[in-house]
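Annex B.
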Amino acid sequence: MPFERGIAVSYETVRCWTKKFRPEYASRLLRKTPSSSAVWHLDEVVATIGGTER
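Putative transposase: predicted structure tokens.
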């Protein structure tokens, strides 16, 4: 995204940002519990390839 805005960012900069912010981001994800109202849908897809269903 920075490149799209005309800002040059090196690989080393991205590596440093990752090293700095990854632990905080990961801890926030682990603390967050799924809500009981979350609904998950599973769809099945059957594809016929060469006359056999896969």
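The chain has one domain: 3-53. The longest helix spans residues 11-31. Further annotation is deferred to the next reporting cycle.
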